[in-house]
Fold Nitrogenase molybdenum-iron protein beta chain.
Amino acid sequence: MPQDADKILDHELLFREPEYQKLFADKTEFEFNHAEVKVDEIRNWTKTKEYQEKNFARDSLVVNPAKACQPLGAVYVANGFARTMSFVHGSQGCVAYYRSHFSRHFKEPTSCVSSSMTEDAAVFGGLNNMIDGLANTYNLYKPDMIAVSTTCMAEVIGDDLDAFIKNSKQKGSIPADFDVPFAHTPAFVGSHITGYDNALLGVLKHFWDGKAGTAEALTRVPGESINFIGGFDGFVVGNMKEVRRIFDLFGADVTVLCDPSEVWNTPTDGEFRMYEGGTTKADVEKALNAKATIVFQEFCCEKTIKYLKEKGQEVVVLNAPVGVAGTDEFIMAISRLTGKPVPAQLERERGQLVDAMADSQAHLHGKKYAMYGDPDQMIGYTRFLLELGAEPTHVLATNGTDDWAAKVQAVLDASPFGAGCKVYPKRDLWHMRSLLFTEPVDFLIGNTYGKYLERDTGTPLIRLVFPIFDRHHYHRFPTWGYEGGLRLLTMFLDEFFEALDANTIVPGKTDYSYDIIR
């Protein structure tokens, strides 16, 4: 065998050894074993305009959607509140997916428990699972709050979370006054941003509307504080630091509703922290009295925005702002709400970003980009690319609505660089593959799953969408604010220069532009 104590090979080399190559060749006897000529013929056909038309005509099949399911967003929300344990009413396998998804992206442990529903619960209901599960969670992990959400199984059979939680309290699983906000998050509709919205709304309603009828509803006493809601954000560790820094420069009294940035950024110092940071229950109650709430993701927080308005708060709604204009809107909103001038430090940072863009715009001007991700994030990236003189040629969101598409189209139509660019709501990555073959672009913006599109179509991938599994620590840097804009600009430029070097690397043949100075 090629692997022994004196010859240790990494996996990328190990499977190139003759023994493994023979195993792979022998496997074809038991697999489809189509002729390579036929495989190539079909593969090449899937790159044509004819196939694209058939691909876009499908209406009953989704292939590799650029979204996750609702409970993932609910688990995100639970991790954003102080000493809160996420409790998913469903099977252990579902919860293992949520934990691993976040842990692989943030490189940090993600705590979440389940009611361990199995076949019998699917038939008779999961009440007993809820009773036992809440008791175990309360006694083993000692949280200050348990946030409950659901999976497909619980929703298909119609389990009533409100009744189940109250029954559990009557059975003595948890104290009668223990806080257990909940949200129904069926995984077979919507996406992770829908789950985020439902779960955050569930927490706010729990504390503001009388804790599911077990306490007096809070009365709003308008004050001068500001709430901030970031929405589902894979870069929350870096972004939340930047957002708090900006508010601090204004000296603003701000309450961040749902902040998981610290639980996914704990230090290695010998102490395990199951709970770290997050919005406290006292802060949630105080947030009702805020003068206004700034929401960074309109399409991620639709129900929550409506609820905040019903409570009498002004709601400033943005779309994951990045770059100059997007950050300007955020900064000016804080200035107006606080009545304070824009700090000189932020004015300086704005000028520095504009200067950096001017230094580099010649390289990015006219470059074509395809991108996919969450709706608000795509609006933010579209606006910034247009500021750079680039062309966001294909903008796709599997969880994007027609209203979202109209908003993106309006952004494109407002810029000369948006001419010919198109928006694709409710489409998936197999649709994107067709577009990359029939209407090629220079770069692709997406998540880790885009690396297969990069390999298949030869389009260089810039990883700026959740989840990112195959690169480390991107989430520690901001994408919001002027500082975030500089980070994005650098990533765009790095990929451009990498592609340029790769295309001019052969000595004596293509290295006429293999330059030291760019």
